[in-house]
Amino acid sequence: MFAEGIERALRVALSAHDGQFRKGDGQVPYVVHPIHAAFMLARLGADEETVEAAILHDVVEDCEGWTLARVEDEFGARTARIVADVTEDKSKTWEERKRWAVEHVPHMSSEAVAVKAADKLHNLTSLLVDLQAAADPADVWKQFRGGRERTLTMAGELVGALAGRADPRLVRALEETLAAIVASAGGD
Question: Does this model's pTM top 0.90?
Fold first, then answer.
């Protein structure tokens, strides 16, 4: 069935993320990420506002002209609260942002936990695909501020925090994907 809010969120994400690309080969439009996260949640039966928030989850931190107030004006308070719960403060260091993400999980709404879990699952899955395709996996890790060890440590801590709150199907996929990344080749 048609969902007007989701349609609007897709249009916003396509426009807001225009010209942005994912890590890896730099050829994948960034908007694939929030759309895929939203798709995962829709398949798990998430409600419309949660799917909207998944589509919009990076617009405030990564796109010009988008604030939480604007998200609330255009999509409502509930969608904006979910987006707020998963939005990192880009004025902080990488380490501070990742630590906050882990420590914030117990305080998130269940909908925000779902968005965060889908976000992390898509990021980890994309990383695994990139590692498997790379001639030299070390080149993949050079794209990450935290390098291999710190990135994996923080990812493991976040997956652990999500394990007590997120849908068990997402948690299982997160754990399996992270284990596959850890087992893959590639140094710092």
Answer: yes
